[in-house]
Design a protein that fits this description.
The complex is a heterodimer of chains A (about 280) and B (about 675).
Chain A: E1 2-5, H1 8-12, H2 16-28, E2 32-35, H3 44-50, H4 52-68, E3 73-75, H5 79-93, H6 96-106, E4 115-117, H7 119-126, H8 128-134, E5 144-146, H9 156-159, H10 169-176, H11 195-198, H12 200-216, E6 221-224, H13 227-235, H14 237-243, E7 252-254, H15 255-262, H16 267-270
Parallel strand pairs in A: 1-2, 1-3, 3-4, 5-6, 6-7
Helix pairs in contact in A: 2-15, 3-4, 4-5, 4-6, 12-14, 13-14
Chain B: E1 4-9, H1 21-29, E2 34-40, H2 46-59, E3 63-68, H3 71-84, E4 92-96, H4 98-102, H5 108-126, E5 135-138, E6 142-146, H6 150-161, E7 165-169, E8 184-185, E9 190-191, H7 192-205, E10 209-212, E11 215-223, E12 226-233, H8 248-252, E13 258-259, E14 268-269, E15 272-273, E16 285-286, H9 292-296, H10 301-305, E17 318-324, E18 326-329, E19 333-335, E20 361-363, H11 364-371, E21 392-399, H12 415-429, E22 434-439, H13 449-458, E23 463-466, E24 469-475, E25 478-485, E26 490-496, E27 498-503, E28 505-507, H14 511-518, E29 545-547, H15 557-576, E30 579-582, E31 587-589, H16 599-603, E32 609-615, E33 621-628, H17 638-642, E34 648-650, H18 655-665
Parallel strand pairs in B: 1-2, 1-3, 3-4, 6-7, 6-18, 7-10, 18-29, 20-27, 21-22, 21-27, 22-23
Antiparallel strand pairs in B: 5-30, 8-9, 11-12, 12-17, 13-14, 15-16, 19-28, 24-25, 25-26, 31-34, 32-33
The chains are: A alpha/beta (about 280), B alpha/beta (about 675).
Chain lengths: ~280, ~675
């Protein structure tokens, strides 16, 4: 399978461990990633708080580039990116004049499409049966708390993915890999996201609550599909524990780490050894 | 040459302010065929009507046009007036120069010109009006009541006590409906069963009420005064004539762990069961989906134990036909099914409340069972997960109601009251407990209602927060309820033991399908439509079909009962006449020119056009033709539109009349 690949800023920067994991894991599953030439920032939180047109134009340019490369499916591993791409696509689909205006702004014809996929959808496209068949080392000791955060499933009208309040798609993948995902309560809570710079205590409290909830429901690790969530839950875990006067020992995996480990890839290959909360991992 | 009288009404200043009535009268008087024209301040008043009557006599008028309000308002008035003067009432036409003209225009000159046009059309039409006589149909003085909840029971009793027979159909094994499962009722806190069961017994034993429980209305044919209802009696596997209601069968049934429908899943019942002790009839049914004998020819213990030999595993569904003259629909409500799966994309289930995931998040009807003396816990409030007595209960109102984004737009009306009641019942059972309520507004309009809510807050100490709950999670056996107190402007987190969701009221399953069978309208939410929201609240657009209770809109017990009695009164009115009269403005088919294509038969929305044969005296077939059943035809004109040979026409709205109006305008 060949997928268009929109890494977004994080995967080439602070979360390049996520990219390493993706490339290793998807490579093993015969998925090739065609990176969009000359891609630009999706606009993230900043653009849509300042200028609505810009918040559409930035992702629209990336859609236009993907279209120019003849890609009809584009994988955006960061949920913020995929949500922004989807939102821009929908806004223009509903308003032909807006599409014209944006096209002239970004100096490229913005097509209707390509289809934007998040990480979970990529694994769903590969197929749970195929994943199950490819498992070499079932993750039977793993009791992950699958964490979706805000943007994988929300806003439901934009992303239209899984159930916005009680999602189950990540659990289904973890189960296929032999893990035993726990039932817990903070799957769609906010980790604090970008507040990590501006108001660290907020992040420590919010992320700390999520970690505490996972631990109290018997999880021995967390699984995420978002670079920002990973930063807050992994890098800030020690600080959050201190802030809440608690003790956590919860490695935080990307969903691709989980799949990769089940496929028999090493922690070094996946970049799991570069996480802050380091464990030997099941391997 | 016609002798037409035109009478223009001022309607005070409603018409006269915008339309120059004097000019209209002067102009219309010059139209050929108009014998006289006049105007008056209130044409519907006694002097106004007298003016019409006098002119009919003096000028020997053979047609009358009244230019005033909508015929919905005063058609009957003016028809009676011309009839009193000896003119056939169908030789009257009304030109609507108020709703269609003066109320919607400002420019006096243009409005006057338009009013004149409208009147000219009516003048053109009235020339082709024919004398018509009302249609008379015989009436079967028996009523069908569909639904045996409190509304259906009340309607059935009132009709039966008026001296008419009633067929009462209920799809559950017992009558009683939702009210039979309630604990205590607002605003008096009297025991629901104590006040309802006497009426149930009365309905069950009434000599003029024939009860069909565990039965559903399969189809309804016919028309007012002459309906034929086909009722499906679902296989009960118990012979009601032999069964004594001793209950031995339920005791020996080994399959005791089936979720009880009557307890909304809060309790268990055997495969053979009577839903509750005071059931009417007190005869069990066998649930064919769980009974081991029916599924795989096992067990059969109840059959062996039953002394009178009432168990009959070979029982099948049976169809029964009943002739009735009027129908009352009282199919009631169900609660919005909270959870993930919804019947429409617009409804989004409220997954954030974890209903169906956390055992201690329940809906309000489930709570009723938990505090009901006849409930699965014998009235002791124990939470479903571990049977502990909850020390903190959170009540959330408007779950599904008043929510354009995820739920239904309307207010379910009764939730504010029963939530206040729930807090009281809870506090009366658990004195040390805390009751917390999240609400949007408190709507307590009704006799003693506001006082009741204040009592819950001030005397029983329920804590009310104006705000919504965003999420419920579970931690260490507690439900963490996070919401907002918008009056204080702060977020609120409550660690609760039990959460009760006041889910929106929706029409019962199958209400829309039933409405279609009865040709009754229903709104976008599935509630049945009354003919007029104020003046015909229990009538429907299908003649002879009446509605009452929560199938028409969310309502509480007093309102349902009042409406049921109103529907019963309407049935009694229908039955009071020896025969019924209907408006004669219906379709007729010219059987000479009918080509028997039957396009009209297929398109008639009321199934009023039938295939018929014309035979010679010898019995030889001359031709096939379509024929209108005058009892069923509603005069919609669909057949006229589809008839390729122009053989269908509507009395009072013939093509001749319509085209004469079009020509008058050209």
């Amino acid at each position: 399978m060949n997928l268009g690949y929109y890494p977004g800023c994080a995967l080439h920067g602070s979360s390049n461990d996520y990219e390493q994991s993706l490339r290793a894991c998807l490579g093993a599953l015969d998925v090739t990633l065609a990176e969009i030439d000359d891609w630009i920032c999706c606009g993230a939180t900043s653009a849509h708080s300042l200028n609505h047109k810009l918040a559409i134009a930035l992702p629209a340019r990336n859609l236009a580039l993907a279209g120019r490369q003849g890609l009809d499916e584009m994988f955006a591993p960061c949920p913020m990116c995929s949500m922004q791409l989807l939102r821009a696509g929908q806004a223009m689909a509903a308003d032909a004049r807006l599409r014209e205006e944006i096209s002239s702004m970004v100096e490229a014809e913005v097509p209707n499409g390509p289809r934007v996929l998040n990480l979970i959808q990529v694994f769903q496209r590969i197929g749970l049966d195929k994943l199950k068949a490819a498992v070499k080392t079932p993750l039977k000791d793993l009791k992950p708390a699958c964490y979706y955060g805000c943007l994988l499933v929300r806003p439901p009208t934009v992303v239209d993915f899984d159930d916005a309040e009680q999602p189950q798609s990540m659990e289904a993948i973890a189960t296929a890999l032999g893990a035993k995902p726990v039932e817990w309560g903070s799957r769609t809570e906010c980790c604090g996201a970008g507040m990590t710079m501006a108001k660290t205590e907020t992040v420590l409290e919010l992320s700390g609550r999520i970690l505490a909830n996972a631990a109290s429901h018997g999880a021995n690790c967390l699984v995420v599909a978002c670079p920002m969530c990973h930063v807050n839950l992994d890098m800030k875990q020690a600080e959050a524990a201190e802030f809440l006067r608690a003790k956590f020992d919860l490695p935080v995996y990307y969903l691709s780490d989980l799949v990769g480990m089940a496929l028999g890839l090493s922690a070094t290959k996946l970049g799991v050894d570069r996480h802050f909360v380091v464990v030997g991992g099941p391997n | 040459m016609s002798r037409i009288g035109v009478f223009v009404c001022w309607c005070g200043e409603n018409i006269a302010r915008t339309v120059d009535v004097q000019q209209v009268v002067d102009s219309i008087a010059a139209v050929p065929g108009v014998r006289c024209a006049g105007h008056y301040k209130y044409m519907c008043s006694d002097p106004g009507q007298a003016m019409i009557r006098e002119k009919i006599a003096a000028e020997k008028l053979d047609g009358v046009v009244v230019a005033s309000c909508s015929p919905h308002m005063h058609l009957k008035t003016f028809r009676r007036a011309v009839n009193a003067a000896g003119l056939n009432p169908y030789l009257l036409e009304m030109a609507n120069i108020r709703e269609h003209c003066s109320w919607v225009h400002h420019d006096r000159e243009q409005a006057t010109a338009k009013a004149l046009d409208l009147i000219r059309l009516s003048v053109a039409k009235v020339r082709f009006d024919r004398k018509l006589d009302p249609i008379r149909v015989p009436v079967t003085r028996r009523a069908l009541v569909i639904g045996g909840g409190v509304a259906g029971i009340q309607a059935a009793l009132d009709i039966a006590d008026s001296g008419y027979e009633v067929v009462l159909v209920e799809r559950e094994p017992s009558i009683g409906g939702k009210m039979a499962g309630l604990s205590e009722t607002f605003p008096t806190l009297d025991c629901s069963q104590c006040i309802l069961t006497p009426r149930m017994v009365e309905a069950g034993q009434h000599p003029r009420i024939r009860l069909y429980t565990y039965s559903e209305v399969e189809s309804v044919d016919g028309f007012i005064g002459n309906f034929k209802a086909t009722i499906r009696q679902k296989a009960r596997y118990v012979d009601m004539t032999k069964c004594t209601g001793c209950g031995e069968c339920a005791k020996v049934c080994p399959l005791k762990r089936n979720l009880s429908e009557f307890d909304y899943g809060m309790g268990m019942r055997p495969a053979i069961y009577t839903p509750f002790p005071q059931a009417v009839p007190a005869r069990p049914v066998i649930d064919k989906k769980t009974c081991a004998k029916i599924i795989r020819n096992g067990c059969g213990l109840c059959e062996k134990k039953c002394a009178p030999g009432a168990i009959d595993f070979k029982d099948t569904d049976r169809m029964v036909e009943e002739q009735v003259g009027a129908i009352v629909v009282a199919t009631g409500y169900q609660l919005y099914s909270i959870g993930r799966r919804q019947d429409s994309d617009k409804l989004r289930g409220y997954g954030e409340y974890g209903y169906g995931k956390y055992k201690d998040v329940i809906d309000s009807l489930q709570f009723e069972r938990l505090v009901s003396a006849s409930g699965p816990t014998n009235g002791e409030l124990k939470r479903p997960s571990d049977g502990k007595i909850p020390q903190k209960v959170v009540f959330i109102s408007c779950v599904g109601s008043r929510d354009n984004a995820k739920g239904l737009q309307y207010c379910s009306k009764i939730c504010c009251m029963y939530t206040a009641k729930h807090t009281m019942l809870y506090k009366h059972k658990v004195h040390s407990g805390e009751a917390h309520v999240f609400y949007m507004d408190i709507r307590a309009g009704g006799k003693g209602y506001e006082e009741f809510v204040r009592r819950a807050i001030e005397q029983d100490g329920a804590k009310y927060y104006r705000g919504r709950v965003s999420k419920i999670t579970e931690e260490g056996g507690k439900l963490i309820v996070r919401g907002a107190d918008t009056l204080a402007g702060i977020p609120v987190t409550i660690e609760a033991d039990l959460v009760v969701l006041a889910a929106a009221m929706r029409p019962s399953d199958g209400a829309a399908e039933l409405a279609q069978k009865l040709n009754v309208g229903y709104d976008e939410n599935g509630f049945l439509s009354e003919s007029h929201p104020k003046l015909r609240p229990v009538e429907t657009n299908a003649a002879g079909v009446f509605v009452c209770g929560a199938c028409q809109a969310p309502k509480d017990i007093p309102e349902s009962v009042a409406q049921a009695s109103a529907a019963a009164a309407k049935v009694a009115v229908t039955f009071a006449a020896s025969e019924l009269t209907r408006e004669p403005e219906i379709a007729h088919i010219n059987e000479q020119t009918c080509a028997a294509c039957f396009a009209c038969v297929h398109t008639c929305p009321y199934h009023a056009v039938e295939k018929a044969e014309i035979r010679a005296r010898s019995g030889a077939l001359i031709k096939h033709t379509a024929r209108v059943n005058p009892g069923l035809c509603m005069g919609c004109g669909t057949c006229v539109a589809v008839c390729p040979s122009k053989s269908a026409d509507i009395e009072g709205f013939s093509e001749e009349e319509i085209y004469s109006m079009v020509e008058a305008l050209a």
